[in-house]
User: What shape does this take?
Amino acid sequence: MNNFTFYNLVKILFGKGTISKTGTEIPQGAKILLTYGGGSIFKNGVYDQVKESVKDFEVLEFGGIEPNPHYETLMKAVEIAKNEKIDFLLSVGGGSVLDGTKFIAAAVYHQGNDPWDILANRAPVEKALPIGAVLTLPATGSEMNGGAVITRVEIQEKLVFGSDLVMPKFSVLDPEVIFSLPDRQVANGIVDAFVHVTEQYLTYPVNSPIQDRFAESIMQTLIEEGPKVLANRTDYDSAANFMWSATMALNGLIGVGVPQDWATHMIGHELTAFHGIDHGRTLCIVLPGIMKVFADQKKEKIIQLGERVFKVQGRTDEQKIENTISAVVYFFESVGVPTRLPEYGVPAETIDRICARFEKRGYKIGEKANIGPKEIRMILEDRL
Ligand code: NZQ
Ligand code: ZN
Assistant: This one.
């Protein structure tokens, strides 16, 4: 196992009825900016529960944060936060609202011309407004990590930043929020969480049985409970298990002391940037390609995934690998997510555009930093 430092101070309030406790976690007298998305919180009662809980605070609201939150929109909230001297941000929504809120929190204190530098040039985050989250969609793990992904529409770029300073002070996870989710968002959440695990697991062995078995238990739970949530949206127990799986998949725990890949995400972000494909769906396109092209490098862990999680059999290693890739593809498709580029209307020219971007960036990705434009072409051409 590799050396590591693990630090996660996000307080989790989990379970039915916990949204009513939101206000008790916010410092008294704070002036709050409540951030939200396209309005789902008004239809499912989450807004009313939150408002009741923070009724003793001064609360301003900023809505309209899009899925794959836009820098252009978020900068308007940064202005409001500065002008109104906001001292607490309360994110009420899915990963996009929360990621957007993390960017607002950091951008408010950014010294320099343009907070886009935090994303494009890794400008350090030195200070941030405190954030609380009421999560309405289990998927990203953003509720218990310091990462955020922001899109700048005018240049079709989708970039990541991370800082401990934007980790939520608390996150409220009430599984009943799942009851109002459409099938598509449930499926996106299941596969996003699953691929967060593979990014931290499907690399090479470093003798880390604890992390491996935590990872396998999360994947197994997603495979068992995800379809139950899809079949019956008001099955509270399955909703709770799904929600906690998604948080555990990306709160840092399973990634300590092990190599991490993240190439599926990095390539997937480009598919969202160019074609607006939902984040989770991009991952289901890319991962099978990576497993095929890097089957040799990832051999031991692919076989372990197959045998332990999907109960795959085979006479040779090659057969086991092939069967594991088929099992992963079958799982994605069984929850309703297509896995090939043409199914999303993506033309072959997009592969050229993505490779050109990685060529320009000049660095390689993956657990061995050996995935560059040539390999990305092979991965994506496999998905045509
Ligand atoms: O905007 P509203 O009206 O709220 O509707 C949303 C949105 O249309 C809707 N929704 C959310 N909760 C709902 C609901 N509809 C009904 N009932 C509810 N309870 O769902 C739609 C999608 O929401 P979004 O927040 O975009 O989805 P998700 O949580 O999957 O977030 C995706 C974003 O997170 C980033 C992705 O790149 C993408 O931009 N990620 C963030 C990560 C992180 N911070 O660690 C890691 C991930 O890998 C991911 O990259
Ligand atoms: Zn993801």
Observations:
- The pocket of 5,6-dihydroxy-NADP (ligand 1) is lined by residues 37-41, 44, 67-68, 93-97, 99, 136-137, 139-142, 145, 147-149, 177, 180-181, 185, 188, 192, 250, 265, 279 (CB under 6 Å).
- The mean pLDDT is 97.
- Strands lie at 11-14, 31-36, 58-62, 88-93, 131-135, 147-152, 157-162, 170-173.
